[in-house]
Amino acid sequence: MPPQQGQPHQAMPHQAMPPQQQAASAGMPPASPQMMHVPVVETHKEGGEKALPRIAIHAFCERPDSAGALQATTQDWRMARANLKIYMGGIAAAIEYYKNESTPSLIIFESSLRAPDLFEQLDKLASVCDSGTKVVMMGATNDIRLYRELMDKGLSDYIVPPFQPLSLIRSISELFADPDKPFVGRVVAFFGAKGGVGSSTLAHNIAWGLANGMGQETALVDLDSSWGTTGLDFHFDNVQGLEEALADHERLDETLLDRIMVRHSEKLSILPAAASLGTPAPSSAESYEALVSGVRSLSPLTILDMPHVWTEWSCDMIKRADEIVITATPDLANLRNAKNLVDYLKAARPNDAAPLLIVNKTGVPKTAEIPVKDFAAAIGIQPAVVLPYEPIVYTEASNEGKMLSEISAAAQTFDGIMYLAHRLRTGSFPSPVSRKKGKLKKLAKKQKGGKDDNPEQGKAKSSLFSKMKKRK
């Protein structure tokens, strides 16, 4: 809103995280070579993240490094809909510019001025601001008194250096949050590097473990309308949950979601898929986004069971999740696909933590599978959990509609699942549990000289590239 019309509030000034360095993007205002920014990545945040709405943002900077930090925000998925334009010249340039132009949704200006010169400039800016425009000042010092005076003048926020892209985005996001729906739950997307690697089974069991083992209110959403297995794994007749929710996303609200979601236990709600081939699911990204937004407004933690498809909507769902879990088995096709996924996500999510990797079905008899340490080295991330090949246990659970926790022979495997569930709930892993057969492993343990579980692997060459060469 214009500076003269805002209402004061008592929040403290936003202060960004410690400064980092990153290559400047093409097209940004001139910046000195040494002033660059790299993202500071957070592995866990209370509450979820949402993309900014379709808004126009104009920024008027005094310093090239401030312009560089703002330019870096445009690479973040949260800013995909926002239209940011950056100008140099500070508040004086803004005043001159809006004498002949209408103001956007948000004006950000940088100023090193102090009162009374600053307040004089603010009055001039207010005189050219349209009603409804929000104004944010990037200042030079963390001055509480100045902050309160600026809030009294009607500014929406006052932020101080050091400026870091993610903190800037969050400061902007808070200004456009829906006051009627302030709560946003976290979303974890499970995606298989290849079909049949066990991603859905693990997603279902982790959702169960979070809800019934840790008491975490959890929602499980099966997004595979054709082949979804929630009905089989949780032993209930499939209903048109997903299909009904996607049919008309404009009428989707909390009442409809509450009606079509299945309350499986006190802490676990499920949105199942009918697994029917009769009616193709909608393909619009807007339908899926509306669905997930609706569910996360009700649940503190939502698990997305993603189908193994790469479309506009599935790409958006994965890219915008708070956490991503990739499941892969240690073979060449999974290696290629997992590496492609990790590389894509690192580029598309520069301010987010790397995906979590599950290496599943290790130790298959009579196969020259890729050693876990070579698999991890080629992908570039360490596995969060390594799980063994146990077909009897998984088949029994699937055929009887049970979770692994209900199968006595799967106790050690379920420990691995709960190990990851703890990470998803708290943001950190628990102390690893020592097991006789080593069902739970951190890759760091293996790198200290631990032997592989599969004796067949000892006969194979240790070099991943030797294996690839051998298969030609």
UniProtKB/TrEMBL annotation:
Keyword annotations for this protein? ATP-binding, Nucleotide-binding
Q: Give residue spans, biased composition: Low complexity.
A: 7-33
Which GO BP terms sit in this record? Answer: negative regulation of cell division
Record bears the keyword ATP-binding: yes
In residue numbers, the region (Disordered) covers: 1-33, 430-472
List all Basic residues biased stretches. Answer: 434-448
Origin, by domain of life?
A: Bacteria
Q: Which GO terms describe its molecular function?
A: ATP binding; ATP hydrolysis activity
Bias (Basic and acidic residues) = 449-459
* GO cellular component terms, semicolon-separated: cytoplasmic side of plasma membrane; cytosol
**Domain AAA: residue ranges:** 186-278
Keyword Lipoprotein assigned to the entry: answer is: no
Q: What is this protein called?
A: AAA domain-containing protein
